[in-house]
Specification:
By secondary structure, the chain is α/β, with parallel strands linked by helices. The protein has a 5-stranded parallel beta sheet with strand order 3-2-1-4-5. Helix 7 links the parallel strand 4 and strand 5. The longest helix is centred in the middle third of the chain and has 12 residues. The chain starts with a strand and ends with a strand.
Length: about 130
């Protein structure tokens, strides 16, 4: 399994050419792709703020992307919550902390271009 950061999920669904080369390879190689539950909230917020433009209502876009991706929605479990509390290195962005914790809890690499996450060394990243 690989876990997709929010932007990686959007790129994979809408503009796969924007994924990094290693990320494109990983997406093809791994049949199991996960999306942290917090990514749904983050994407809805980005759309509401006009920072991301979706071609349909956010709830419909997300349901379609999960089904057609395909990707599985990864829950905010007690384990994810507990790991998140230990990720002080990523202070300031709770969504990033929850996404990293989701990858860690699922023993999966994270597909992300986020430099702060990549530099932290907290989780194996792919881009």
């Amino acid at each position: 399994m690989i876990v997709l950061d929010t932007h990686a999920w959007v790129y994979l669904t809408s503009e796969p050419e924007r994924l990094g080369g290693e990320a494109r390879w990983a997406v093809k190689k791994h049949r199991r792709r996960g999306v942290a539950a917090i990514s749904c909230w983050e994407l809805a917020m980005l759309a509401a703020q006009g920072r991301v433009t979706l071609d349909r209502d956010p709830a419909t876009w997300m349901a379609d992307a999960l089904r057609e991706g395909p990707a599985e929605l990864l829950a905010l479990t007690p384990q994810v919550a507990a790991v998140t509390a230990k990720l002080a290195e990523l202070d300031g962005d709770l969504a990033d902390r929850l996404i990293v914790a989701t990858a860690l809890a699922n023993h999966a690499p994270l597909v992300t271009k986020n430099e702060k996450i990549r530099a932290s060394g907290l989780v194996r990243t792919i881009w």
